[in-house]
UniProtKB/TrEMBL annotation:
PANTHER family: CLEAVAGE AND POLYADENYLATION SPECIFICITY FACTOR FAMILY MEMBER, INTEGRATOR COMPLEX SUBUNIT 11. InterPro entries: Beta_Casp, MBL, Metallo-B-lactamas, RibonucZ/Hydroxyglut_hydro, RMMBL. SUPFAM superfamilies: Metallo-hydrolase/oxidoreductase. This is Ribonuclease. One of its GO terms (molecular function) is RNA endonuclease activity. It comes from Dyadobacter helix. The keyword Hydrolase applies.
Length: 474
């Protein structure tokens, strides 16, 4: 058995691992790599002669841990380059992946239209060249026809000598740890892929579930050297911010939030706050079509949410809808709320304030000392969200240099990633005497190095931090 690390190797994004046994090849995740800029991505694709560093047609099966685009985003390209197999995932992951891939395809189409628009000028062939990793909705639909949904906890045989089992990982609706069992030369080998590990007591989601003893463990390490700062309840943390920013003063609260997962946790928490606190009637504007569609998926799969959410649904009929909530359906409605002068809450994507409608809201409110921008998740270096969190006095938005007069705050109770303690708990499910090797992926290099040191102290000696393209014989 051979394992090659083609993504999320000494970086956070682009999860993609190739597992080979005899002539059978399994790709675990097939995510978009956001660590490369357009020039570096183009150079890599030219060197590889395609989006992938391997022959796509030789892959037999894809196993998808969850829907987030850094795990799923390159699946349509895999089919474009010749893959003809199945993509195996849970039913909610299929539903959310469909939304995310179509959203990505729509973005690609808009960029293609912009490239092809001459604006009265003749463009060179090079300037009109289509990036190799662009796909449109037709490509997405062709890929989705080959998705196969499976249930948690059920063992499935995907080849004569290979079986797989999905276990709930928390983190996102439908997200899974995947255990692969391979029979080679009369010996059974087990390898687990963590996907993204969720945290306990997260709004809506069940806690990450225990997986059986394995021989090899591929473990994410996003929070390998960090603990969550806010350990209280999301309801208390968010209610306190709303009171300070919208009640004590007639202010406006802007919350950049990822559309899939994070926004649903926010809306559910706001629903609980408005039911249990005597707050004034503060309007909540949810400004993301993708978030609206994703929220309907969460409502559809309420049976797969945690017990508290199921009980809330039974008692109150709706998890997310409440009297003060308004979904903004189009860009015109989004722009119009700049003229709304009462205290309000605006939830909009993206969570890192990098693209999306939220840039408009930040631009419109960054000079308002009565406005607060609340960051609720990770923002990678260089993004507008990162610059806000690092206290820059002026920021550039859409070519304008603007002074930062709004208040910038941060809470991490809505982070969907387990922190260092959660990662340690996941690793310690495995007996160090029986676990042959751990591979750390999906993290910044310092986070991986620090987590490797911690894991070593617990008696796990064989811990690897693979480089991209590194191959291991198992």
């Amino acid at each position: 058995m051979k394992l090659t690390f083609w993504g999320a190797a000494q970086q956070v994004t682009g999860s993609m691992f190739l597992l080979e046994s005899d002539d059978y090849r399994i790709l675990i995740d097939c995510g978009s790599d956001f660590d490369l800029d357009e020039t570096a991505r183009k150079t890599r694709y030219e060197e590889q002669k395609g989006v992938f560093p391997f022959e796509a047609s030789l892959i037999n099966t894809v196993l998808l841990t969850h829907a987030h685009i850094d795990h799923s985003g390159n699946i349509p390209n895999l089919f474009k380059e010749g893959f003809e197999g199945r993509v195996v995932c849970t039913e909610p992951t299929l539903a959310l992946t469909s939304l995310l891939l179509k959203d990505a395809a729509n973005l690609h189409q808009k960029r293609l239209n912009a490239r092809n628009s001459s604006s009265g000028k003749k463009k060179s062939k090079k300037s009109r060249e289509v990036p190799k990793d662009y796909y449109v909705e037709k490509n997405v639909n062709e890929a989705l026809e080959n998705f196969v949904p499976v249930s948690f906890g059920q063992r499935y045989r995907i080849a004569d000598h290979i079986s797989i089992t999905f276990y709930p990982a928390g983190h996102l609706l439908g997200a899974a740890h995947i255990v692969v069992e391979v029979m080679e030369n009369g010996e059974r080998k087990r390898i687990a892929f963590s996907g993204d590990i969720g945290r306990s007591n997260y709004p809506l989601l069940i806690d990450p579930q225990e997986i059986p003893q394995v021989d090899y463990l591929v473990c994410e390490s996003t929070y390998g050297n960090r603990l969550h700062e806010n350990q209280g309840s999301p309801v208390d943390a968010l209610a306190e911010v709303i009171k300070r920013t919208c009640v004590d003063i007639p202010g406006r609260l802007i919350i950049p939030s990822f559309s899939v997962g994070r926004t649903q946790a926010l809306l559910y928490t706001l629903n609980k706050i408005y039911l249990n606190h005597s707050f004034p009637s503060i309007k909540v504007f949810s400004d993301s079509p993708l978030a609206y569609s994703s929220t309907k998926v969460y409502q559809r799969y309420v049976r797969m949410l945690n017990k508290e959410a199921r009980n809330f649904q039974e008692e109150n009929d709706m998890l997310f809808d409440f009297d003060n909530l308004i979904y903004l359906e189009n860009a015109e409605a989004s722009r119009a709320i700049s003229n709304y002068n009462e205290p309000c809450i605006i939830i909009s994507s993206s969570g890192m304030v990098q693209g999306g409608r939220v840039e408009h809201h930040v631009e419109a409110n960054i000079g308002n000392p009565y406005a607060t921008i609340l960051m609720i998740g990770y923002a990678s270096e260089g993004t507008l969200g990162w610059r806000l969190l690092n206290g820059q006095e002026t920021i550039s938005i859409r070519g304008k240099q603007l002074p930062v007069l709004a208040n910038i705050e941060k809470i991490d109770v809505f982070s969907g990633h387990g922190d260092q303690n959660d990662l340690i708990k996941f690793v310690k499910m495995q007996d160090p005497e029986k676990l042959k090797r751990i591979f750390l992926v999906h993290g910044e290099q310092q986070s991986m190095a620090d987590f490797q040191t911690i894991v070593n102290k617990f008696g796990y000696d064989a811990v690897e931090v693979p480089k991209r393209g590194q191959v291991f014989e198992l």
